[in-house]
Amino acid sequence: MSDEESKLISRLTKEYGRIHSISTRQLKEELSSFGLDTRGTVLVLQKRLKEHYRRVQSSTHPQIAIWHRKNPHSHYAIIDFEATCDENLPETDFMHEIIEVPVVLVSTATAEIIDIFHEYVKPKMCPVLSPFCKKLTGINQTVINQSRSFVEVWKDLEKWIEDKRAPSETDTNNENEVIKSLCFVTDGPWDFKKFLAKECRYNNMDFPSMCVQFCNLRRRFCNYYGVKRVNIEGMLKNLGQEFDGTPHSGISDSRNIANIVCTMVRDGAVLDNNEVVDVSSIYTA
Asked: Cβ contacts of residue 264 below 8 Å, gap of 6+?
């Protein structure tokens, strides 16, 4: 490490110490003076302010690579499936089938939602929803009866993504809408490791290669802000935000997860793959 790097680290360490010593009011005042978000718990506010000073050092000393955290992804695809369920059957024995596929696309360049894919799915084995499932998800039987199979919907999703990877010459999408590198983000490991894995087994389809690795947001959120692991509502509460929409609605959950992701990107977080699906176990389970 060079003398210049050592001096910068020492300077930043002192700044971090100062940030931890000031009051919540002072944190908010300092964040406000920089035009930064003043919502959130003390731990979130401290992390946000420390990241601001790290960015300042990065911009004023571009020759020192240690300060640069380049996001390897151009976009995040937030997905939160809803699946069939029944309160009268044990969770371990129930054959969950996906009934809602919502994907919210976030640009890492702008930290904004830029597009949404949303389809309902007609279950293959148990096409009639239980009263509990309808009440929990807000999805009615008429919607399910008019929906297509999971295989058909998933093919449409793959095409939707592929079209954004290689837009046609006549496509008017701006640069921020062209997918160069995509990372899927879920609230925990269950959407891919449980629900998507089961659907692939039920339909004798290959597990999608683009979903083998993904970002478990709960894990990344608690590691980044130094808070205990919580659910969607808990993450929003830490950020000083409220849930918008209906809990357990796939599209509402996905939008709220996307709002969390956008806030984290603005706060300087890099969300990367931290979970891997064991594809070999899917078809032997």
From this structure: 220, 221, 224, 271
Element (H, E) at 54: helix 42-60
Contacting residues for 157 by C-beta, under 8 A, at least 6 apart: 101, 103, 117, 119
pLDDT band (50, 70, 90) for residue 92: low
Cα distances (Å, whole numbers) of residue 30 to 8, 12, 25, 40, 258: 21, 16, 9, 14, 27
Which residues are designated catalytic?
82, 248
Identify the pLDDT of residue 59: 73
Q: What angle do CA 258, 234, 256 make, to 5 degrees?
A: 20
Q: Which positions ≥6 away from 98 have C-beta within 8 Å?
A: 81, 82, 83, 121, 123, 150, 195, 196, 199
Q: What's the CA gap between 52 and 38, in Å, rounded?
A: 13
pTM for this model (two decimals) = 0.92
Q: Which of 231, 283, 276 is nearest to 80 (CA)?
A: 231
- Using CA atoms, how far apart are residues 100 and 83, in angstroms rounded to an integer? 7
Residue type, 41: T
Residue 46, pLDDT score: 98
